[in-house]
Amino acid sequence: MIDIQTLVLGPLQTNCYIVSLPGSKHVAVIDPGDDIAALQKALEGKTVAGVLITHAHYDHILGLPALQNVPVYVHENDAPAMTNAAFNMAPPETPAPRVPATHLVKEGDVLSLAGIDFTVLHTPGHSMGSVCYQAGDVLFTGDTLFAHGYGRTDLYGGSFSQLMQSLRKLLRMNIHIYPGHGEDAVFGREGNEQR
Fold first, then answer.
1. CA-to-CA distance for 30 and 168, rounded, in angstroms?
2. Where in the sequence is the domain holding 160, given as residue range(s)?
3. Domain-located, residue 68
4. Model-level pTM greater than 0.90?
């Protein structure tokens, strides 16, 4: 069992997750969104073991400056977007941070952070490097899969056919999803929401 704290950050209401073992001050942060002050407050007294990026669109990485000197994990296909506004879709009035990834991930990698094993599932479609991170029966899906839908594919690096392949893989799982936006949900093997 893991503890999951959800922060809803920024104008796009991006879900940032602070994940830990019960009672532990060591945490992993997933998708630090656009509210550095709120993120810093939530992390007071905690030690961040690493930051997991589901995909490098600007609304999922704007909080990175709040997390200094910690490992940042992203799929190699999205690594260029970490420092390039043309790729991370940041609007001109929103200067995106230029915080590069320190570690590149790929399908099947297992990352041990804060005492928790996160398995990487490469799920392209919303972006070329979209990934989900599985921790037991919990899956952090970014903008690949939502409780009532899926991510758009008309942005840089998007592909509807790739997203459909990714969704077929995910919807075969018995899993509790924590998406990049909106509420969490439980899906069964037939792909039917059970919540």
1. 23
2. 3-187
3. yes
4. yes
CA–CA dist 70, 154 (Å, integer): 32
DSSP conformation class of 40: H
Beta bridge partners of 139: 134, 177
What CATH number is attached to the domain comprising 30?
3.60.15.10
Q: Could you tell me if residue 192 is inside a domain?
A: no
Burial of 141 (0-12, 13-18, 19+ CB in 10 A): buried
Is 31 exposed, middle or buried (CB count within 10 Å of its CB: 0-12, 13-18, 19+)?
Answer: buried
Tokens of 120: 């990487």
Sequence length of the chain is 195
For residue 152, tell me if it sits in a domain: yes
Interacting residues of 47 by C-beta distance below 8 A, sequence separation 6+: 25, 26, 27
The pLDDT, as a whole number, for residue 96 is 64
Neighbours of 1 (CB within 10 A): 8
Q: Which pairing describes strands 175-179 and 3-9: parallel, antiparallel, or unpaired? A: unpaired
Tell me the two tokens of residue 122.
């490469």
Low-confidence ranges of the chain (pLDDT < 50): 189-195
Total tally of structural domains belonging to the chain: 1
Q: Is 193 a member of any domain? A: no
Give the SS3 label for residue 73. Answer: strand
| Residue 150: both structure tokens together | 């899926």
